[in-house]
Amino acid sequence: MILNRPFPLDIPSRQSLRYTFYAALCVFLILVLLRPFGLDELKSPILLFHAFLYALVTFIFVTANTLLLPRLFPTVYREEKWTVGKECIHMCWHLVPIAIGNWLLTHWLYKNSLSWHNLLNFLWITLVVGVFPLWLNVLLKQQRLLKKYQSGASRLEEQLNQPVSAPSSTEPVPEQVVFISENGKEQFMVLPGEIRYVTSADNYVRIYFIKDNKPASQLLRNTLRKAEDVLSPFPQFFRCHRAFIVNLKVVQHVSGNAQGYKLHLQGVEELIPVSRNLNAQLAENLNRSAMGKKQIPTSRDRLAEGRRQT
Asked: What pTM, to 2 d.p., does this model score?
């Protein structure tokens, strides 16, 4: 069902404020050019001023919703669970405070009654006028983003399947990764080829790796930023999301939906998301990782190699 399909959750930003400004501008232009609801009886200077006030109501209430709702309901506003249906409900909710604001503004400007009947009329008119274009915009955006990221994922897949000779590196790379807890009391060592990804978990990081051909994990009290510093000598590790660092050498497949790219890792069921502002960097790092790509040695491989040498 299309309402259950993934949809990107826009976090408050300058871009979202710009879209809110455009919405308010549309309200202003509609009122000035079409002059509905008896506005054609107003003289031009008064009409422009009243149209500006109604546009300002739209801007203020949509901005307040955009900034406050994710902070008030953080468990609801999570991108991994955001869908087309939730986006449609979120957009329609914008119309409710706008209708209430217009109801109060109309009372102040034209001395209309503050009755429940008038309020219901404002809610009805606002919803009827706004619901269809909002839903249509959401559905069209979902289809556009889906095609965009599916096409981009196909190009990234081609990069994964076209390894070339890797340039030689003179910089020594440590054989093991050593993670140390924030208080310095715990230590975890693992081969870089065994790591699949690292993710943040409140005040901890969890390292997912393969041990004896089985998935395993280790929890340490630390920040993802510190884990990123520890992994910096190993070029295959890439922070693809604010909550994930991934080993690009174990990426087997790249898929895409309206939220962006998802990385499928060897031996891992979870799909790793990629932040949309890191798409170009992902392509560059995947290309670098694919150069001379070969089987990453695990502890078992190193043990076998040691036996052959002896």
From this structure: 0.78
User: Can you tell me the distance from the alpha carbon of 283 to that of 286, in angstroms, rounded to the nearest whole number?
Assistant: 5
How far apart, in whole angstroms, are the C-alpha atoms of residue 172 and residue 121? 72
Angle at 292 between CA 289 and CA 293, to 5 degrees: 60
Task: Check: CB of residue 225 under 8 Å from CB of residue 205.
Answer: no
Radius of gyration of the chain (CA): 27
Q: Are 247 and 197 in contact (CB under 8 A)?
A: yes
CA distances from 100 to 51, 89, 121 (A): 16, 17, 10
CATH number of 168-309: 2.40.50.1020
User: What are 257-294's pLDDT values in tens digits?
Assistant: 999 999 999 999 999 999 999 998 998 888 776 654 54
Report CA torsion sign: 44, 46, 52, 55: negative
The residues pairing with 60 across neighbouring beta strands, listed in sequence order, are: none
Read off the tokens for 257: 């939906």
For residue 78, give the nearest of 234, 190, 194, 243 by alpha carbon: 243
Domain range summary for the chain, segments of one domain joined by + = 2-157, 168-309
Contact predicate 196/293, CB 8 Å? no
